[in-house]
Amino acid sequence: MRRLLLLRHAKSDRPPGLLDFDRPLARRGQEAATLMGKYLKHEKLRPDLVLLSPSKRTEQTWTFVEPHVGGEPEIRRERRIYEAPVATLLKVLHAVEPEFHDVLMIGHNPGFEDLATFLIGHGERDNVHRIALKYPTAGLAVIDFAHGKWAEIGARQGRLERFVTPKSLGSDEDD
């Protein structure tokens, strides 16, 4: 079994004059990222590989999540994740070596929402619908696959195990 954890970066700030790539997390985003890190720990969702967009807000999201994850996952900064469409995100995922079973990707919308919608074929209907309506900042989709290799993953082959947002965990952030 393979497990993909799709974590959208937490809420970012928009300081004037900064490029989109360089936007930092807002205070609310820091709190939400910490909350999601604690959730991963509590639920024993431990990636063995982290694929990280190199933008400032995704890097900072990981900085707040990492202390709670446990273990020593391999970290890869993957430029192709930044503002990527589904086809590119899928190529990144297909390139993951078979020894990695639990992969955490931290990136952006609309790519993550589109990727989740593309991959999910089964799962709790309300959660599947929630993803299609809105994939908020710091939202986490946990998608399981029966396939033995990442390279074999395709459309509608995943089962949405859960979809968690800061708001569903009691935070006021969900945008």
TrEMBL record:
SUPFAM superfamilies: Phosphoglycerate mutase-like (SSF53254). SMART domains: PGAM. InterPro entries: His_Pase_superF_clade-1, His_PPase_superfam. It comes from the Bacteria. Gene3D superfamilies: Phosphoglycerate mutase-like. Coiled coil: none annotated. CDD domains: HP_PGM_like. This is Histidine phosphatase family protein. It comes from Microvirga terricola.
